[in-house]
Amino acid sequence: EEEAEVDAEVVAHLRRCGVSEATERLLGACSVGLEALTLCSAAELVDLAGISHNEAEKVVAGSSRAKAAAAADDPFGDDGGDGTLKKDEVTTIMGYPPDGFQCGCLEVIVHPELDLLAMAPTGSGKTAVALMAILQAFRRGKKAVYTSPIKALSNQKYAEFKAWFSKRGMASAGVALLTGDIKIRSPPGVKHELIICTSEILRNKLVKNPHEPHPQPPPAAAAAGGAEPAPPAKSTSERSASEGTSMRDLDLDNLGVVVSDEIHYINDSERGTVWEETLIHLPPAVQMVALSATLHQPEHFLAWIGRARGRPGKIVKRTDRHVPLHVGGVERRGGQFLQFFGTHAPRKRGDAAAGAFQAERYDMLCAELQEPERPSAAASGAAAAARFERANEKE
Q1: In 3-state terms, what secondary structure has residue 307?
Q2: Pairwise CA distance, residues 291 & 303, whole Å
Q3: Spatial separation of the C-alpha atoms in residues 139 and 122, rounded to whole Å
Q4: How much is the mean pLDDT over the chain?
């Protein structure tokens, strides 16, 4: 008679528990997985495999030690407090302390009832803000979704986050990539999941997915506008029956935060509706963290998000720019670049100080563009001679 195949993980766990070889064989023959085994009580193990109560107690004690060790190694696990990330924890996990802008964002992120609009120039730490939002979702036992407007950026962020988790030994975190062309799923059994996708992918999932009804306008706002009270929202089952059966998207289950990078794409004339529909269809219990380097009238935009989602939000801005920006034009005569505005120290002699606008250079460059270039005398003579020769040839 052939012996039943024994799970190597189960055997290794039982040996760490210090049980006898006979107990290993009996429990191994039951074809119980490691996760199910660690959930069994001593009485259940006795009934399951016929082992002694003393041996069963060893297995239960070993399972408890393994769970405690796993929780200690999990940087995203419950810290035993209120479940919010602290600045020192972020410093330990990220490897460097967050700056003032990032600390301001963290103060908003730790409140799940608030949305965040983080605005900072390129290279000023917005990716760290996204990482803090993801870590906070993991701390709450939730999934996180990171969206970008283009596939190339999604691929880049997938590689960055996957390498970041792996470098820090965070085996409990998995990263998935969904771009339409590529679909890479997280390893099975991961405790925390980050899904990176394009904005269109998330929008399609939200539109097709039946979830809780959207929030109605607050009573005070409705009264101020003279609107009649909205009818009771339909339940998920009622909406499914009236709108047709729809499979629930498991990627959206237990979703804690959506990080929307380059949110200013909402102003794009062709693709802006993707971000609008995403914000409108996103369940109100999910936190939104929007990142942008440039966004016109951010206060008005945040107010619109609040009306669309029925949730309050806050703006955290950063004005200093880490990546230098030099604005100017090429002089027509000398072919030299003339700077009329710069965010950092002058590049060469004659340039103004950082943040100063040189109106005279700007006016000179604009005048050269508005006036056609006057040819030199030699060029004019050569052109006249060429016209004379062509005229003679025609005669």
Answers
A1: helix
A2: 16
A3: 28
A4: 81
